[in-house]
Amino acid sequence: MSILVVGSVAFDSVKTPFGEREHILGGAATYFSVAASFFTDVRVVAVVGDDFGPDEETVFIERSVDITDLERIDGQKSFHWKGEYGYDLNVAQTLDTQLNVFAGFKPKLSSEARETPYLFLANIQPELQLEVRRQVGAKLVAADTMNYWIENARPELETTLKEVDILIINDTEARELAGEPNLVRSARRILTMGPKRLVVKRGEYGAVMFTENSYFSAPAYPLEDVFDPTGAGDSFAGGFMGYLAATGADDENAMRRAIIFGSVMASFDVEDFSCERLRRLTYEEIAGRARRLRQITHFEESDMPRRPM
Amino acid sequence: MSILVVGSVAFDSVKTPFGEREHILGGAATYFSVAASFFTDVRVVAVVGDDFGPDEETVFIERSVDITDLERIDGQKSFHWKGEYGYDLNVAQTLDTQLNVFAGFKPKLSSEARETPYLFLANIQPELQLEVRRQVGAKLVAADTMNYWIENARPELETTLKEVDILIINDTEARELAGEPNLVRSARRILTMGPKRLVVKRGEYGAVMFTENSYFSAPAYPLEDVFDPTGAGDSFAGGFMGYLAATGADDENAMRRAIIFGSVMASFDVEDFSCERLRRLTYEEIAGRARRLRQITHFEESDMPRRPM
Questions:
Q1: Which residue of A176, B19, B38, B256 sits 20 to 30 Å from the alpha carbon of B214, by its own alpha carbon?
Q2: Whether B133 contacts B119, CB under 8 Å
Q3: What are the angstrom distances between the C-alpha of A254 and each of A110, A250, A257, B144, B291?
Q4: If 0-12 CB within 10 Å is exposed, 13-18 middle and 19+ buried, where does residue A111 land?
Q5: Please, which residues 274-303 of chain B have a Cβ atom closer than 8 Å to chain A?
Q6: Which residue on chain A is closest to B260 by alpha carbon?
């Protein structure tokens, strides 16, 4: 089944300890759709300016991502994010954000878009997420958000969350949303806000998934060369939703495998700037890392050796 | 088979967001031996002052920990550590350290101690670790250390490491020892320093284990109530070594199960001050959390659903 994603298609200027790039293709919806496109059909709802040219378009077209619902506005610029990472690649420092075309964005969905069974609301204004959510009669809705909206648009975010099945956010966002330092307690609180499932991304520490009565912990793929973490979370969400949409399954086991494929897609994303590594990916590489994630977590149960006392 | 541990038996004054305790029993060797005592026989090499009384002795005796090699010095005080934790329970702030009896400690091992097959060198001066290591013809030697020794006694630490089979340290210590921000690269470097196996403790994110050609990632047990993280790393090492000594196995699978039991013992330790929770533990509780750690990491392998393009 196919996926609709709404979120930013943008340009990024990124500096990491390993290099620097100006004005490269970025945006949550970009990373998400390229990652998910290895699993199933993807359609993007977003807006770009006239700086979005044939080179950027190629990234979507070569992955057969449907950009019919990608709006273009002449005489304006695309969303632009400028950020920097230090040696602790888990933390991005935002230097500048220019909403540009996104400031007045009112998504108008095509009738095909409205009928997409899987919907991902990438990290944008909660009102925009809600507007799209209400236009799409999806079977499964997942969403991301960020500290900025938790702090500055909490009522709108809470309204949106009521209509979301799976929330996919990072560690500090989960604690901030719940107002609680302990992650397990945070999860319990968030699961009363609407989502029936919470996925918490923890960078190099992997990801964990909560429902009211289940808990799953998955490692990150061990990497020697992390080049640029931008887009890791969105690539994760792309692999996760891609797997679910491709299989149509929604039981706990399928959700766990979806987390593994999310972790795999994130691990490739960080190996190069923009979505360059994702663009070069093969199915064999994806399947190989998924198999390896199983090897590195596998152990056989054994009885506890009890000391006779 | 039995274990010998050398390290501190001490008094701690600890403050966490959930409470405060003055002069409670602590020390790496204390936590280690109480945790390991659930699996096998343990003997402690350490030194205490005359403030170590019957109440403290009881903690060892009730767990049948052999304290024949625990030296007592009249007219002096035991090692004392004062520390504080904020809401980020992963980071302890040391407010005061008084070596007291440990300042001039020269371990004199009994002949039984010298023949112990499993040896754990808890976090103390690397010279002391080496002195004990050379007196014991152990089958398996594991060690811990800390940033202080990495920074202030590096040559001595490097000498000790050459005679250690398994190094069990935390995340930041591994990066600092290797002088490298990436953990996978750090591990590769550390595995050229002597140890053939590296276990990296990551607090609430679990633990990972490296050899030259294997990698294992284990989660922490998910807890809603973390009360005092003091001793978690030593309880982890106690469960890990306890399992290995009890089974006598040293293959990769056994090492992985040992990590799981280490993770379980750490998860209990943090639920109360000092080793109070460990003292109340039952075999059933330990076995139960080990089983649960398998459930929360388990997933079935599946083929990657490949999108036809």
A1: B38
A2: yes
A3: 30, 6, 5, 39, 21
A4: exposed
A5: 283, 286-287, 290-291, 294, 296-303
A6: A299
pLDDT in tens, A13-43: 999 988 999 999 999 999 999 999 999 999 9
Nearest C-alpha of chain B: how many angstroms from A240? 12
Q: Is B184 exposed, middle or buried (0-12, 13-18, 19+ CB in 10 A)?
A: middle
- Please judge whether A307 and B246 are an interchain contact, meaning their C-beta atoms are less than 8 angstroms apart: yes
Nearest chain B residue (CA) to A87: B181
Position with higher pLDDT, B107 vs B30: B30
The CA distance from A166 to A216, in Å, is 14
Q: How many CB pairs under 8 A join A and B?
A: 131
If phi > 0 it is left, if psi is from -120 to 50 it is alpha, else beta; for residue B75 that is: left
Predicted confidence (pLDDT) per residue in A90-127, tens digit = 778 899 999 999 988 999 899 999 999 999 999 999 99
Write out residues 82-101 of B within 8 Å (CB-CB) of A: 87-88
pLDDT tens-digit readout, A166-224: 999 999 999 999 999 999 999 999 999 999 999 999 999 999 999 999 999 999 999 99
Single-letter code of the amino acid located at A208: V
Q: At what angle do helices B252-269 and B28-36 cross, to 10 degrees?
A: 120
Handedness of CA B186, B191, B194, B195 (dihedral sign): positive
Residue A268: pLDDT band (50, 70, 90) is very high
Query: Which chain A residues touch B257 with a CB distance below 8 Å?
Result: 299-300, 302
Q: How many Å apart are CA B223 and CA A182, to the nearest integer?
A: 8
What are the CB-based long-range contacts (under 8 Å, 24+) for A183-191?
A: A183/A208, A183/B204, A183/B222, A184/A210, A184/B222, A184/B223, A184/B224, A185/B224, A188/B224
Whether the Cβ atoms of residue B109 and residue B116 lie closer than 8 Å to each other: no
User: What are the beta bridge partners of residue B197?
Assistant: B166
Interface of A with B in 141-200 (CB under 8 A): 181-185, 188
- Give A142-172 as a DSSP string: EE---HHHHHH-HHHHHHHHTT-SEEEEEHH
Does A202 contact B at CB distance below 8 Å? Answer: yes
Report CB contact under 8 Å: A291, B301. yes
Q: Is the pLDDT of residue B59 over 90?
A: yes
**pLDDT tens-digit readout, B129-148:** 999 999 999 999 999 999 99
Instruction: Report the CATH fold assignment for B3-297.
Output: UDP-N-acetylmuramoyl-L-alanine:D-glutamate ligase (3.40.1190)
Distance of CA A217 to the CA centre of its chain: 18
| Domain range A3-84+92-295, CATH class | alpha beta
* The pair of three-digit structure tokens given for residue A201, joined into one six-digit string: 């991304």
Other CB atoms within 10 Å distance of the CB of residue A112? 13
Least Cα distance to B268 among B35, B44, B12 occurs for B35
- Of A38-52, B83-97, B150-164, B180-194, the least confident: B83-97
